[in-house]
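Lab notebook: predicted structure, single chain.

Context: the supervisor wants predicted structures on file for every construct in the current expression panel, including those that have not yet been purified. This is the next one on the list. No modifications to the sequence; it matches the entry in the shared construct table.
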Amino acid sequence: MDFSLLVFGDDGWGDEMLRGALMTMAVAACSYLLGVVIGVFFASLKLSQYIMLRYAADIYTTVVRGIPELLVIYLVFFGGGALLRSLASGIFGYDGYIDLPLFITGVVCIGLSAGAYSTEVIRGAVLAVPVGQIEAAKAIGMSTSKRFWRVLVPQVSRFALPGLGNVWQLTLKETSLISVIGLVEIMRSAGVASGSTKEPFTFYLLAGVLYLGLTSISNRGFLRAEAWASKGVRVS
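Prediction complete. Output recorded below exactly as produced.
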């Protein structure tokens, strides 16, 4: 291993790897937020009294969780560009080449995957809330909005945090797949650096260290969040 290759500046690749790590975090954070929003939406559909809405949500989670994430990336990357070109041609008469920005493509791809897993986590958390607490809130005259914000949301958040922490770790690691579309994150940076220096072990080992550092810090953050959310909860 040649550690001199990891210095910052023109003589090393340290700054390129750092920028790749920052891009990884940016994509992961945006994808995770998108996934949680998607998860809340489809979890509400799965809990709906209307069977067609439940079927629609089941189709989404089954399809996205049932096909490889790499295939999702290819479908969005190539299909998104084709859709944009079709819309531009049909609406504006523009026949030029259009593609989705790489960052948005990466966020959408990883976000769709995170959303499918978040859906099941949030649905399970809602079902874990004791029915008696909702009935008690109704009995004391709480409005629907107050029951939602004061009873349901705090309880669902507490039950969902461990599962959502796992979804975050999965999202963070899945960002490595978007290197195939050319977005320069950790794996893409490591690949370019190893190809230029002929030192693949050095840079892929550094990539592993970076991912391990990010996941470890994230795990500590979620553990603290779980501890905070569980304050005042008596464990029987």
